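Q: Please design a sequence for this.
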């Protein structure tokens, strides 16, 4: 109001040909720009204060980081006054998209979303906090990591809801792809996520092949044995079809249907289908990895279809709220029989006329549970699939359940929550390989490595954590990184430089990047027989400039190679090589190992300087590399 009055006075003075003093004119102009008081004359010697000088310094933040806080209102909730999962998916997608566009500097669209596991529900009146930031940029796509938590304003309690990874694609004019600038991680957490993002990308690319391979190997008769139970509900009774008209409020700032809106519509019809099976209000527990095939625009009609594919009986541990993996069932206490169901849902788009085939936009698979009054999952009716496509969906749901368990308990868990020697088979080979490489990359990215000793060119570092003592030993070698990688990735030649190895037999070549070896080592001082190991060796070439060559090792179990009386079966949790090129002919070779209890005495003796065995072994590794690099060149030239 003060600004308005000043403006009116100034106008009257001008109309009356009254000369306006310069100070008043300046003050009025400043007032029009937002000042509420005339400028104060500075005292002699007083310095002009820099803008923002009174603001407290804040720590540097990732430039792609986006934070969103939303108060859950009644309009956002379901009949239980809990936040609708569809609404949460909208917020997640919005925050992730804004983060991606901060990095790309241009419009971005959702390409895919990895598995999401919802740990808790959120009540009306609580606050949803979402943090999203770009983990890594590839050529035209980038991975965005999203963390979701809730905050209770009355008690001050904070609790994690879920963690998700989304892939976004940058789009230029007319939908052309944009080459993204690289991202440089700064903190330890960012370096870990950056490094493992390449492994997650690799896993997404082989997801379909993993499902097909598992279905090929699964016997048909065992998977359909319960479908004709007396209490089975025909799957057709759960089928839902709904149509939505895409209006301007449903579109993003690029004119395409907002990805979060499509996910919300899909969640709605999936919930209805699940309710038709259980005749209750289900709770969404997980959404499987899915991909957006095509965009849709304002004016499109979206046909959403959902059906219950399968219902499962799970062993449930109180407090967990999710199925437990087969290899943990033997030691799980207080197990209660419960149930979950998988609902398949699809979205198709067409214009005003249906003369052409509808465009397939997206498919997703959602896992629901029905909770009793104490929050425990209830048992569910069995599903009787119709012949043909119904039986195919039924079998695929069983395969996806196994894949979800593998991803959740092998990929997503912390190292200490996964048994050391996980059983290896064709169905979980992708996830064990991921776990093997990502565990080593996480160890490499740790920030608190301390130099323990240095002997000539060999440097030894240690990392002390709550449960593990890890060591790293490194040196620069006159050999190209690719040649060193080729020599060190072959465990059958390790005995040539490592005196602890007696032999390494190739048991199975999983693929070009993963091998399983039976390794025999020397006797330990406190043992009267040699040790043997079943080792999964996973090798990776650099994904982009600056990445190392990686050779990762971890223990697995194979039914064809059980423990034998003449050996003491040993295990390794995480070890391997990382090789960085330093120049055209020089490489930095580093070996990492999380020491197991049986080797702690050996490691600490070397760290303390009471033995030089580890350094001597690494010096022998250098001689091996130098000796064999010329032979390798000759063989490659002959080839």
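A: Design:
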């Amino acid at each position: 109001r003060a600004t308005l009055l000043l403006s009116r006075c100034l106008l009257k003075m001008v109309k009356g040909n009254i000369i306006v003093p310069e100070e008043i004119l300046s003050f009025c102009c400043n007032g029009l720009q937002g000042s509420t008081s005339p400028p104060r004359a500075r005292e002699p010697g007083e310095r002009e204060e820099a803008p923002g000088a009174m603001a407290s310094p804040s720590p540097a933040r990732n430039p792609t980081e986006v934070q969103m806080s939303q108060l859950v209102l009644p309009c956002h909730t379901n009949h239980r006054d809990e936040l609708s999962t569809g609404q949460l998916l909208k917020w997640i997608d919005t925050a992730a998209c804004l983060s991606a566009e901060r990095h790309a500097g241009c419009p971005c669209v959702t390409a895919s979303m990895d598995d999401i596991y919802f740990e808790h529900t959120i009540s009306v009146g609580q606050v949803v906090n979402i943090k999203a930031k770009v983990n890594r940029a590839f050529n035209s796509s980038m991975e965005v990591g999203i963390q979701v938590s809730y905050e209770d304003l009355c008690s001050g309690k904070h609790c994690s809801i879920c963690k998700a990874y989304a892939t976004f694609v940058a789009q230029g004019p007319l939908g052309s792809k944009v080459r993204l600038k690289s991202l440089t991680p700064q903190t330890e957490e960012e370096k870990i996520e950056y490094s493992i993002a390449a492994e997650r990308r690799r896993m997404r690319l082989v997801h379909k092949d993993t499902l097909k391979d598992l279905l090929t190997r699964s016997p048909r008769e065992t998977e359909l044995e319960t479908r004709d139970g007396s209490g089975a509900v025909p799957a057709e009774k759960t089928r839902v079809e709904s149509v939505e008209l895409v209006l301007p409020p449903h579109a993003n700032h690029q004119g395409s249907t907002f990805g979060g809106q499509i996910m919300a519509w899909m969640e709605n019809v999936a919930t209805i289908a699940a309710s038709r099976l259980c005749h209750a209000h289900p709770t969404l527990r997980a959404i499987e990895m899915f991909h957006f095939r095509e965009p849709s625009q304002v004016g499109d009609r979206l046909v959403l279809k959902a059906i219950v594919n399968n219902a499962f009986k799970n062993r449930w541990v109180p407090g967990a709220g999710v199925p437990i993996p087969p290899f943990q069932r033997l030691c799980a206490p207080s197990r209660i029989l419960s149930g979950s169901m998988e609902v398949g849902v699809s979205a198709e788009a067409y214009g005003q006329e249906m003369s052409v085939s509808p465009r397939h936009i997206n498919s997703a698979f959602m896992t629901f549970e029905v909770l009793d009054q104490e929050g425990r999952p209830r048992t569910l009716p069995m599903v009787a699939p119709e012949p043909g496509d119904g039986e195919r969906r039924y079998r695929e749901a069983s395969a996806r359940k196994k894949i979800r368990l593998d991803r959740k308990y092998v990929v997503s868990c912390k190292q200490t929550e996964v048994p050391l020697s996980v059983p290896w088979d064709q169905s979980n080979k992708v996830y064990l390989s991921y776990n093997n490489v990502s565990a080593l990359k996480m160890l490499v990215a740790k920030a608190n490595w301390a130099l323990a000793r240095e002997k000539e060119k060999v440097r030894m570092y240690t990392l002390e954590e709550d449960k593990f003592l890890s060591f790293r030993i490194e040196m620069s070698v006159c050999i190209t990184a690719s040649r060193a990688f080729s020599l060190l990735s072959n465990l059958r030649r390790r005995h040539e430089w490592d005196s602890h190895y007696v032999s390494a037999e190739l048991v199975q070549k999983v693929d070009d990047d993963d091998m399983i070896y039976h390794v025999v080592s020397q006797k330990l001082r406190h043992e009267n027989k040699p040790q043997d190991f079943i080792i999964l060796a996973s090798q990776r070439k650099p994904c982009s400039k600056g990445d190392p060559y990686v050779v990762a090792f971890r223990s697995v179990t194979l039914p064809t190679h059980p423990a034998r009386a003449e050996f003491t079966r040993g295990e390794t949790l995480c070890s391997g090589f990382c090789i960085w090129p330093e120049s055209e002919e020089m490489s930095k070779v580093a070996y990492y190992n999380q020491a197991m209890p049986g080797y702690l005495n050996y490691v600490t003796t070397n760290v303390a300087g009471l033995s030089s065995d580890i350094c001597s072994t690494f010096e022998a590794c250098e001689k091996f590399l130098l000796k064999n690099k010329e032979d390798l060149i000759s063989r490659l030239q002959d080839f």
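Q: Thanks. Anything notable?
A: Residues 364 and 486 are 41 Å apart (CA to CA). The longest helix spans residues 613-638.
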